[in-house]
Amino acid sequence: MRRRVALRRSGPPLPLALLSLALLHAHGASAQPAGGLDGPLTLKRTPQLTETLPPAERSQLPSLITGDRLSGRQDLETVVEGHATLRRGEVAITADRLEYYQPDDRARARGNVRVNQAGNVYEGPELELKLETFEGFFNNVRYSFLATGGHGEAQRIDFVDSNVSVARTATYTTCRREDFPGWMPAWLLSAATLTTDTEENVGVATDARLSFMGISTPPLPSVSFPLSNERKSGLLPPTIGIDNTNGIEISQPYYWNIAPNRDATFTPTLMSKRGLNLGSEFRYLEKEYSGSIRLDLMGSDRLVGQRYNETRAAQLQQLANGEIQASALNFGAPPSSKRWGIWANHHQDFNAKALGLDSLSANININRVSDNDYWRDFTRTPTLAQRQLTNDASLNWSKGDWSGGIRALRYQTLQYSLSPIVPSYDRMPQITANYNKYDWHGFDVSLNLDYTRFRVNTILAGQPGFDINQQSQPDGDRALAIATISRPFITPSSFVIPKLQLNTASYNYYLPQSDVPRLTVNGTQYVNGVPYNPNSLYFFPTSSNRTVPTFSLDSGLIFERDANYFGRAFRQTLEPRAYYVYTPFRNQSMLPNYDSAANDFSFATIYTENAFSGNDRISDTNTLTLGVTSRLIDPDTGVEAARFGIAQRLRFSDQKVTLPGGTPVTDRASDLLLGAQINWTPKWSLDTVVQYNPDTHKSDRSAITARYNPGPYRNLSAAFRYQAPTTPLATDGNKSFDVGWQWPLNDLWGDKGKDLGPGKGQGGGRWYAVGRLNYSLQDKKLTDGVLGFEYDGCCWIGRVVLQRITTGTVTANTRIMFQLEFVGFSSIGSSPMQTLRTNIQRYQPLRQPTEGPSRFTNYD
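RESULT FIELD:
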């Protein structure tokens, strides 16, 4: 017969404990009202199911003992034989024989001993343990950890407390144990001692060897690894890569977990072709502010001197061949070989209520590098291959219907002689205030105020980035006000929205002498009282303003019907739309242009008032845009299965306002815009846009994108893009094909695998192909590409990825990344994960961090 008893440390004798427990239960039962419940029974949370028990509560918990035969001495000991079980809180011990000594709270177990401590399981022949402090030892033990699924064996485990244990002559792996003779895991960590700390979630192995497929590393003095997905300080796995620019690249990161809301990473990187780069990143997160700072420093980069010598040798060869004259030699002083980059961002929330505001926040964003070639030579930075780096600080506020901000923005433009770019204007500063009021007696009202001081660096003719239009008006101030009022009339089947807008701007800027009216006196020309000198670089201050009104009328109808296509029921809509805009002509040719550019022709811009972005050019417009859209909607879920649209803009008069150097628009009808989006099932989709020219009967631009995603880790995407050149002799056109994929190769021989859940893969022994290729049909070359394979070995994952990045019109950077990930332990090699996420649409990692399992998932 099995018996059960509850004991407390230094508690009453066994019979008295049983009697007291029975009386407590009887008392609890008699406390219920005799007449039944006055209200519904409500369930309450019990602290007995909490994941982690506080030490104070753990010491007060009862000890529950069951077994076939029970004997003992009062207040001294209890002996249980046959199916013996002792449980206190999150600790459960089973054995053939169990002895419990009450004075020192010590349990001794013999024969088929099993300990379950919060889901972590230990098994062996002999155990001695203090229950409250979890101090003791376990001989010849097998163990497994709940958080990682890792397991191993040890000659002995010493339990220091409920969190820390030290295993002697121990092994560890996350490979699933197979039940056949001679089984060996794919990888195995062997160590003289293996210390695990479940509170810090870290394991430390000394005198350790890591074996993979029978190949072992030399003894390592100390190796640390995580027991969960939480952060810990220490050396991270080294990364090794091969790059045609850097050569063999070895990085050894060190992670410092300063606090739960602060950390830092230091990453020295040795490049065989270039030297040593020191990288560091600091992150912080507080209730009212957050941010990060990254600093990379390379004291001496051999690539700089190599590039200088190659340029010098090429010019000397041209001189020897008679291709250039000696006067054309332009070596200059060798550039500095010191390279650096800094990237920082900070967000701050202030106490807005103290100032009578609803919100008040500040943002700082810094991106600075040492030289123009940094974007080509360091492609794995936060700004990647960007060549206009933003550096700005802003203060933003809101109160009721008002909002605004103060901003200072400066660009660092990285010029490249083979592909120069015109730098953007700095805004030093920009001050804005905005008012938006919706449904004010049926009207929507808005007022946008903006004052900006534009500045740009001087670039001499012949230097990269020189633009005559920009350099002729380098600096200026602009005050802008845009007032808008509209009256929407909206019903379930129609809408009519008349709108009036007034756009006014005042400029203070500088003009060269050649653009300022001249006065001739006695044969001498004067400009603002100064004799005219065509060779002078002096700019004269001037001012001007313009005010442009705009009227627009947006209207549309919505028809619906039930339809059936290909055996599916839909709610089909037909939505015609008419959009009329009238803006009178105001001559703006003498005004500077700081931020205006031609709008891209698309469904997002065809229903807008202005043909230009920005605020320096307001197009004179007398147009009517007509379009119609039809949608197929699933009546049960409301999901849009398909959308088809067509639109065209009709012009009643020429558009005379142009950008500097532009020509008036005289076409009475714009190109025809056609688009379709089809999401017939969640597995596949098609998105296409075509800009058709009725005059040439050809497409000036088209984009077709298709995606097939039948299940987890299966994704195919393809895109074709075409952009006609602006003129027959221009080279600004584009014609390219882009394809990306992630697919299990095992599907080819019928092995479909099984879905184990997000971030857990589809089982071991499976190959995956990953990649993306961008091919220019116009240049007949591969511009960018990623090609690789992944192998899921269940407890380990191997990845090999080759990447090619175009960093100029004639240059490209190629690197190979190899990574070996020991699941739940560590990884070595160069991680390609960021590359795969960036380049492959809907890429799914084979393993992702998930919430740790509850201790009750492995409850005895």
